[in-house]
Specification:
The chain is α+β, with helices and mostly antiparallel strands. It has 2 domains: 2-68; 71-154, Roll (PH-domain like). Helix content is 47%, strand content 26%. It has 4 helices and 7 strands. The protein has helices at residues 8-33, 46-68, 107-111, 136-154, and strands at residues 2-3, 71-74, 78-83, 89-94, 98-104, 114-121, 128-135. Strands 1-2-3-4 form a 4-stranded antiparallel beta sheet. β2 and β3 (78-83) form a beta hairpin.
Length: 155
Amino acid sequence: MNRLDPRVRKVWAVKLAAVGAGLTLAAVVYDVSNLLDPERWLPLGLASVTVLAVAVAFALVLPGLRYRYWWFELTDEELVLERGILNRVRTIVPLRRIQHLDVSQDIVEREFDLGKLVVHTAGTRSSEVVLPGLPLRGAEGLRDRIKAYILDDAL
């Protein structure tokens, strides 16, 4: 089984930090809007401090745990993904069921030269499988290997 690129931990941390910043901002707005309310149900600043502490803890801990439990393997006939911290999920994608492939990057992944391989399969349920945290060249190479199998299998 193969691991994701270690830089994906930083990508996940940045994304979690951005979500945490948004939630902290919402908590600050709540605190400020209830500043003079004598019947507020939370002491002043408690919401902001709590949300900030939880967001920082998540941004520091979750990316490492998520990375630790993410594996993938490309065999001759299938792509196997295994992931999950509390709930382990093992996804097996038969290569003959793949419809098309995408390699994509969002703005944070682009900064770390990482990408994700998006595999579209036949069917409607779970028809899109995403393999994140690959070096961009590695994602393109994996896409080309799967594409070669699909083209060979079609003949």
